[in-house]
């Protein structure tokens, strides 16, 4: 009986040791996740990055919306070349706060606006019978089509809304709004469950 009790106590001690060890490792993993969260989300740098991203999104989307409204109202104009440069200036101003992915996804939009403006800019200087004029008109048309095709839009004012929505996807604002809504839904659900 004494030896068996000793063996049982030894096995229990080993089992308890492994339970304690697993609990400790779980606790350490949770603590590491909390630290990562604090550094990644709640740190001053993360907060500043988020704020700068929000500022950038507001400026960029407002300017893009104005440019698209101008295209919708006035068609292709030489001023669009400068308008595209204004988007680049906004992007450059916030370059430290943007990801490479965001920048590379905005480039085609800016390039198409620039193409539309530059083709319209040189169009008046070409002779009406010139093949170059036809090529420029085709390039202008292709740039407009590419701008619209990238977003899968249809004719009309809906184009602007759809293009802005695509830009929101590129900038991550749609995802942040979805995350916010999901967090709110979860919080409301917990409150309702606690009332029951």
Total of DSSP H or I helical runs spanning 4+ residues: 7
Q: Which structural class best describes the helix and strand composition?
A: mainly alpha
| Global outline | elongated
Intertermini distance:
54 Å
Major sheet description: none
Low-confidence residue ranges? 152-156
The percent range for strand residues is under 5%
Can you characterise this structure?
There is one protein chain. The protein is mainly α and 196 residues long. It is 85% helix and 0% strand. The chain contains 7 helices and no strands. The two termini are 54 Å apart.
How would the blueprint of this fold be written?
Layout: H1 2-42, H2 44-74, H3 79-93, H4 100-122, H5 131-149, H6 158-171, H7 173-195
Summed up:
With 196 residues, the protein is mainly α.
Question: Which characteristics define this entry?
Answer:
196 residues; mainly alpha; 85% helix; 7 helices
